[in-house]
Amino acid sequence: MPVSPPDLDLVRSSYDRVADNYVAMGMGDLTAEPWLRAALAAFAEEVRGLGPVLDVGCGPGTVTAYLAGLELDVRGVDLSPRMISHARRRYPDLPFSVASATDLGLADASLGGALGWWSLFNLPRDVLPAVLADLARALVPGGRLLLGMHIGDGEVVRTEAYGGVPVRWTTHLWQPEHLVALLSVAGLDLEAELRIPANGQVRPGVLLSAYRPA
Asked: pLDDT confidence of 201, banded at 50, 70, 90?
């Protein structure tokens, strides 16, 4: 099991504080994001029928619900109880629970797919590899991991977010080739890569789809 980051409680309380503003501001809305919707549709097509799908760091459940609408058996987990409260209120028919990406308790070959949709960038560089390996271990052969991360070098320490709410977390930036290497070490083969350019105040990002070989 991956080691929990030392700032886990600080990150949890920070996301609890921003959760209400996050939802009110419509963060994570996919309406104006055709390429992101296309990536989720491709992911759904690849994993449909392989087994349950886990949305790790689901926030208020927007992407979880979108995948459910694509006929996936999906559940969401998030570190923040307040985010999960919003997810349960907004999508009462879907299963959501509070959990850390570092302590998911997943059985081997128990998932058809897993999703880290811009939700793992708070994990320190020495913790992310073990989390990816844990998710890879939980995939069935042919199962997919869809990973979204911010592109860049170094770290960005945040002290406020989503309308000026005080927070304490670090955004770890990654170059795509380094993430691809981590996925390979975890035992996954890269299937596709989608670069997302910066838009306004949003940093450039990358979506990586990788599968567990048979």
From this structure: low
pTM (predicted TM-score): 0.96
- Condensed to tens digits (0 to 9), the pLDDT of residues 96-146 reads 999 999 999 999 999 999 999 999 999 999 999 999 999 999 999 999 999
**Domain extents in the chain:** 8-211
How far, in Å, CA of 185 to CA of 172, rounded? 19
**Which superfamily, per CATH, for 8-211?**
Vaccinia Virus protein VP39 (3.40.50.150)
Neighbouring CB atoms inside 10 A of 125's CB total: 11
Residue pointed to by tokens 């979108």: 66
DSSP string, 57-117: T-TTSHHHHHHHHTT--EEEEES-HHHHHHHHHH-TTS-EEE--TT---PPTT-EEEEEEE
